[in-house]
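User: Teach me something about this protein's shape.
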Amino acid sequence: MKKMLVLGAGTAGTMVVNKMRRILDPEEWKITVVDQEETHYYQPGFLFIPFGIYGKRDVIRSRREYIAPGVELVMAGIDMIQPDENKVRLGNGQVLSYDLLVIATGCRIDASETEGLMESGWRKDIFDFYTPEGSLALARKLRTWEGGRLVVNVAEMPIKCPVAPLEFLFLADHYFHQRGIRDKVELVYATPLDGAFTKPKASALLGDILERKDIKVVTEFALGMVDPDRKVIATWDEREENYDLLVSVPVNKGADLIERSGMGNELNFIPTDKHTLLAKDHDNIFVVGDATDLPSSKAGSVAHFQVDVLQENILRWIDGLGLEPHFDGHANCFIESGFGKGILIDFNYDTEPLPGKFPLPGAGPFSLLEETKMNHWGKMMFRWVYWNMLLPGAELPLEAQMSMAGKRS
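Assistant: First, the predicted structure itself:
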């Protein structure tokens, strides 16, 4: 019996094993997935916790609940991959062999990468919202915070969900209006980018919304250090921004095991063919989700589109056929803009977000690159879709490749 081994049972890894278990003959292929966490988190929900929209129970489920019958789930840490031997060594000393390996180990924040970030101010007047602990701590802080200068800072790109810091600011604007203290709060966005977003048309729209909401944008702010005593963040060239409350998006990195295995770049992301999802240096290893070094967004929708391409390429790999270069960097994302409205963007490697209707040309019901109430409800409905359709690997009525239907150039 041949062995398919998947490392990581997050969004991407769970979709992979659930889809492949339905496709591959269980008498021919054993499928094993390894993860050390019993809890599966709905990570897009972390954004809503600081503002009391979601609580902890809204974003957690048992990991075992979402792994298909017939898939072996091994709960253990991973020490290292030994690709030359087709083996993976676990933290408990167990060694798993494989014929085909899929790496879906995701990425995580590493606040220790920035000088001063985790010193005396951490979880007092410096917070993150990319972890459940950070979101919950920030929720407690915001309930009693009476105002001042709130700075949202992105330390370095890439990050999971590149629009999440903007969504945080939009929701903060709404939240402080509801509390009646918006006039006492200065909102600032300090980003290493030269605009609000990486794509020009979307950046222009988001920049307009930031200006309308009186949110200051500080561009090309390459974070060098945090001085928690002076309450200052500074760039490498010594530009400074002061804060009363700092909401940080720390450096995002791939899993430490990738570094131990000698397979990643300087941020532990794995060099991956941008169209086939095959690891560049290994002919029986695929990489999916946030673990790749691809120039696409690190987001759940991207993982979904990648897995649709990956399942076909796994079947072609098994049959000894050439891989199809079908992943085009497709991403779509609902951006919560506050006050019951949202924006939807749909783009890929080569095409930036454009206006139009989605997913049905002319009918929608969602509007692209436009702020609408329907887009807000699309964002809120996605949690149900995630738990009930996306993770189980159900077929969704969306093509993996981006379509120009319904878009206006």
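Now, about its shape. The chain has a mean pLDDT of 95. The chain has three domains: 2-106+255-318, 111-251, 331-390. If you'd like, I can walk through any region in more detail.
User: That's plenty for now, thanks!
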